[in-house]
């Protein structure tokens, strides 16, 4: 048996374990918006086979709950196979084994570009008269930058950075709760007030998902130049964003354990040990915390000179693959994901809509029990910050951003820490790209 045949046999066996959205049942009426967005409703009435590769790392059960079941319901004539990513080489193995992917999900698109599977859908947008202007502008801007003026995919939902806080700690210390619209300087003062030792327990005022908050920074500072693939760590706006966050770790008693950044050491004490008063992270974290801690949220703090600029949007895109064997049918799926019907569904499940008309945002988290009575709408900023492009080397940049933070906490000055971290980013990118 040849090596290729063995690969294909292994892949075929694995596919038996995958959930297939089979074409079944009577067709339900299509909503008028879905028809107009698609331009030709007959496309959805014709049988088609589609494969979606989901790179989120989530289990199939999560995928089905978040969009798979809705696609089955909306497209009963389609047979849609969803393949969850199991490891970094899953997509590569799928293609090498003779498999196919019509649609690939990704927040950054890095997996799509790594495999050179991007495909401009501008022709389909024109063919079906799809209106890009209905989408939140920064999501379109990201795609335009990625595709050099074209469009590789459409967003399905987005997330942002917010501030979670533990009400019990604030009540214990008699400190007023944080508020929507407060500045970073105001947050800094609150962090100092809630960093204290009480009954031999050290409480930290603020911890954060440092890498995510840096990625979604309000200065629109990118880690890597999208054109040159060179580090931007020494740019003025990157330094401003970095210093704004690192100062919180320099509050006496609020430092990272061992002066090293580890995400679990930043998050777990917030909702497990309950020794951290506030935690900056992505807004969906409440689904993890549930009722383990008496939490609520407020919007990401703002800068005094930019009072309306909040977090960057961090959309989840559905990219059209160049290997798609049925681009028209795949496009129907992409356009449905941006329809009012689907957007209401994801919003009620706790996500932020990707439509310019944000009226649906009033329903954020309506179907999530643990969100009842919480200020979940704080996740939606007045204005999204200028979006940055996350290149396929973002994970390298994130790791070196944390390394720069560690260096500063060990006594290195900020300029040196960022310069050295940027040099390491450039070296690693050069090694990974073969010097290209």
TrEMBL record:
Pfam families: SBP_bac_1 (PF01547)
Keyword Transmembrane helix part of the UniProt annotation: no
Signal peptide segment: 1-22
UniProt keyword terms in alphabetical order: Cell membrane, Lipoprotein, Membrane, Palmitate, Signal
PANTHER family documented for this protein: ARABINOSE-BINDING PROTEIN-RELATED, POLYGALACTURONAN_RHAMNOGALACTURONAN-BINDING PROTEIN YTCQ
The protein's name: ABC transporter substrate-binding protein
Native source species: Paenibacillus hodogayensis
